[in-house]
Design the sequence.
């Protein structure tokens, strides 16, 4: 565990808590993509199957259980409890265009052709693009609430901090995972446009609104 | 450099 990794995890944790607080306090899931959350649930479920096969640390286990628990609770809030506020018309990204190629790629490009390893690889690839339905929704509606922007900033920062973690680990431990690094770079690049808007608008007290 | 099959990251 190094400082980049810890900050990355804390950023990820903060993102999830910000999203839950937004939904709970406003009793609304407006502006949130249910499809992105379903993709994240798929990512966590696929990646954390190793909860049953290997124990790493109390920290590791607690975080995994928290991530899985909260993402399913988020889906419950979007599709059941606060369903009336869910903007399904604008959440129209076709997720099969992500799942199918990502599944195929996980079969073709992996570290080892074994079930758990392929499922892990699938989760890494899927995570890198899972935010697309959310970004697509914002581009369709042309705006994002400030709290939603904070959520996205924390979520995007998490993988950027992991990139720093991997650079550190490469030099400190000789650890290098090409699949995670390439997917992490792709994931971070997808947020760049948003990061720019966040820094130029949200940090100056304005909300994100795109020209029509 | 090494790749570990035990994933210690989240």
Sequence:
């Amino acid at each position: 565990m190094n400082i980049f990794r810890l900050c990355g995890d804390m950023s990820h944790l903060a993102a999830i808590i910000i999203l839950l607080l937004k939904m709970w306090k406003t009793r609304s899931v407006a502006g949130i993509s249910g499809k992105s959350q379903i993709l994240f649930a798929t990512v966590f479920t696929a990646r954390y199957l190793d909860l049953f096969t290997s124990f790493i640390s109390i920290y590791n286990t607690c975080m995994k259980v928290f991530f899985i628990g909260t993402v399913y609770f988020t889906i419950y809030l979007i599709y059941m409890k606060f369903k009336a506020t869910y903007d399904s018309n604008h959440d129209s990204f076709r997720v099969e265009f992500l799942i199918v190629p990502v599944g195929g790629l996980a079969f073709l490009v992996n570290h080892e052709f074994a079930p758990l390893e392929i499922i892990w690889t699938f989760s890494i690839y899927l995570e890198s693009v899972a935010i697309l339905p959310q970004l697509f929704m914002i581009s369709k509606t042309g705006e994002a609430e400030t709290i939603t922007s904070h959520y996205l900033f924390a979520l995007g920062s998490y993988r950027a901090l992991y990139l720093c973690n991997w650079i550190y680990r490469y030099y400190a431990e000789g650890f290098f995972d090409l699949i995670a690094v390439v997917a992490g770079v792709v994931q971070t690049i997808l947020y760049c446009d948003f990061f720019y808007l966040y820094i130029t608008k949200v940090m100056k007290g304005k909300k994100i609104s795109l020209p029509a | 450099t090494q790749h570990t099959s035990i994933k210690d990251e989240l």
In short: The interface with chain A takes residues 1-10 of chain B (CB under 8 Å). The CA atoms of residues 2 and 8 of chain B lie 13 Å apart. Chain B is about 0% helix and 0% strand.
